[in-house]
Amino acid sequence: MADVLEWPGPNPSSLSWHLESNTKTFRSPFNGASQTVRFPGSRWKCTVEYAVLEEAQARKIEAVLAALDGEYGRVRIRDWGRAGRVPAGNPVVTDPDQTGVALSTKGWAANTLVLRAGDYFTVNSELKKVTADVTSNASGAAVIQFAPMLRSSPAANAPLEVQNPWGIFKLKNNSQGEIRRSPGLVSATTIEFEEAF
Q1: Which candidate, 63, 92, 84, places its Cα nearest to that of 130?
Q2: DSSP collapsed to 3 states, the chain
Q3: Which of 116, 133, 121 is nearest to 93 (CA)?
Q4: N or C, fewer C-beta in 10 Å, the chain?
Q5: Of 173, 174, 172, 178, which is closest to residue 190 (Cα–Cα)?
Q6: pLDDT tens by residue, 145-168
Q7: Is the pTM of this model over 0.85?
Q8: 88 within 8 A of 109, measured Cβ to Cβ
Q9: Distance (Å, rounded) from C-alpha 71 to C-alpha 170?
Q10: How far apart are the C-alpha atoms of 124 and 114, rounded to whole Å?
Q11: CA distance 147 to 130
Q12: From CA 193, how far away is CA 4, in angstroms rounded?
């Protein structure tokens, strides 16, 4: 896999962001009953639009797009519409071999609301969204409910990034990155990304 690049910014003029779930529904041909199964592999998708890019900004974005080389490259992306949180402590994963949509953590300030529903965090290079408020106990431990489910188990003491959470993304296809330019004035672009793993 290619090196993971940093997105140069600035914040986009508009952003569309959503989670594409990996579920399958099976419907009985006999009685019409349906059963839905959830699998790992749900991924974040986003479309970023830059309506006005000055020359210096456009050059940086064009350089990263060229370095990504279509779908091959990887880049750290965050939801620019939602700021991170200053961490209440130094949160880390408590135990190894955790799976699913709940994570036992420690290292938080005691008896504190440490994350709110809708916050993001990064663990194991995976971007997660908190689905219920999280309050630490007297010893600074807390269980985080989140989506999507873990794709791989983080190691014990793996750090959580809550202040600047990010995910690893790739361009949606090899046609992304068209720059619309008004010569001598400004540039504009719309780019689609999807989480890569």
Answers
A1: 84
A2: CCCEEECCCCCCCEEEEEEECCEEEEECCCCCCEEEEECCCCEEEEEEEEEEECHHHHHHHHHHHHHHCHHHCEEEECCCCCCCCCCCEEEEECCCCCCCCEEEEEEECCCCEEECCCCEEEECCEEEEECCCEECCCCCCEEEEEECCCCCCCCCCCECECCCCCEEEEECCCCCCCEEECCCCCEEEEEEEEECC
A3: 121
A4: N
A5: 178
A6: 999 999 999 999 999 999 999 999
A7: yes
A8: yes
A9: 6
A10: 19
A11: 7
A12: 14
Distance between CA atoms of 169 and 1, rounded to whole angstroms? 12
Paired sense of beta strands 4-6 and 74-77, if any: parallel
Tell me how far CA of residue 80 lies from CA of 46, 87, 106, 166, 185, in angstroms: 10, 18, 27, 10, 26
Residue 122, both tokens:
């990064």
Contact between residue 149 and residue 99 where contact means Cβ atoms under 8 Å apart: yes
Span 77-107, pLDDT tens digits: 999 999 999 999 999 999 999 999 999 999 9
